[in-house]
Amino acid sequence: MEETVATQIRMHETGGPEVMKVETVDVGAPGPGQVLLRQSHCGVNFIDTYHRTGLYPVDLPSGIGLEGLGVVEARGDGVTEFEEGDRVFYATGPIGGYADERLIPAEKLVRVPENLADDQIGGHMLRALTAQYLLRRLYKVQPGEQVLFHAGAGGLGQIAIQWLKHIGAEVITTVGSDEKAEVAKKLGADHVINYSTEDFVARVKEITNGVGVPVVYDGVGKTTWEGSLDCLKGRGMMVSFGNASGSVESFSPAILSAKGSLFLTRPTLMGYCGTRPELIESATEVFEVIGTGAVTIEKATVYPLTDAVQAHKDLEARKIVGSTVLMP
Questions:
Q1: Which parts of the sequence belong to the Enoyl reductase (ER) domain (predicted)?
Q2: Which residue, of 51, 90, 114, 256, has the fewest CB within 10 Å?
């Protein structure tokens, strides 16, 4: 096999977006259990900023990015599930997804059904798989339940709102602007709260007649943590799955008993799709809701692969509505 030269975004230190550099590397031939993937879409997710800043440490120097969509170019020994030319995605790493070509373990890949287009999958699957495990496995939302899902206009929030409505839940969501409120309303959210101008705890209590909700999905972190706990009913479930506004500060577990014998979990996608059977099961359900139209995937905001720095700046400045993709 001829030498494969790839363009990758790499970092040699942690810090701001500027630590990411465009580099040309020889990726080599696929080893046992690996494939060489030519990528058309590289997903950009908030977890990438945690790797870049060092909040979630990685060994340096390192690539960046956990999600991609592309075509299998070559297979290593022992790879029997995929053929050259197969269209596949991955969304649970390994890190190094900001690249036009890369090597990746075949066990991390899932074949994309022919009825789904690239722009329905590329850059969206990490969020879609996250929605699946949050809503269908971690806490299995039931028809008629009132649910609070923060950041409804984001890429994950848009998928979650539609999926929750498909289930039959009553959806309460928060957003940071009137523009984002319109996005959430069009997706079907029953109650949209602009937390920059409204007290979201007071509104949730008003909506639920003072009872609170059985589950809060909070990917915002520091700025919504205390309020999210106050939105829960007795023995409710606090699902803290992200730190978009910063990490939650240390707290005493006694706060959970004081606020009503609450449950708290800090899950990850890797924790729920860490085995191949779990990954395939989750992806199959995601393909189903997208394929039937129960969840409509809006086109992502697209940047050239070499503009990863600007993509991160815009993501952290909350300028992007929906998902973000780098395209080689």
A1: 15-326
A2: 114
What is the helix (H) or strand (E) element at residue 120, kind and residue range?
helix 118-121
Domains of the chain, residue spans: 5-124+298-327, 126-270
pLDDT of residue 1: 55
Q: Whole-model pTM?
A: 0.94
Rounded to the nearest angstrom, the gap between the alpha carbon of residue 176 and the centroid of all alpha carbons in its chain is 19
Q: Where are the alpha helices (DSSP H) in 168-217?
A: 178-186, 200-207
Q: What is the pLDDT of residue 241?
A: 95
Q: Are strands 213-218 and 87-90 parallel, antiparallel or unpaired?
A: unpaired
**pLDDT score for 145:** 98
* Top-level class of domain 126-270: alpha beta
Strands 20-26 and 67-75: unpaired
Interatomic CA distance for residues 249 and 77, integer angstroms: 47
The pLDDT of residue 91: 97
Q: What is the pLDDT of residue 152?
A: 95
- The segments of the chain whose pLDDT lies below 70 read 1-3
Give residue-wise pLDDT tens across range 60-93: 999 999 999 999 999 999 999 999 999 999 999 9
CATH number for 5-124+298-327: choose from 2.60.120.10, 3.90.180.10, 3.40.50.2300, 2.30.110.10: 3.90.180.10
Residues whose CB is less than 8 angstroms from the CB of residue 123 and which lie 6 or more positions away in sequence, other chains included: 41, 42, 43, 44, 67, 69, 300, 323, 324, 325
Cβ neighbourhood burial of 85 (10 Å; 0-12, 13-18, 19+): exposed
Residue 65's nearest CA partner among 23, 101, 95 is: 95
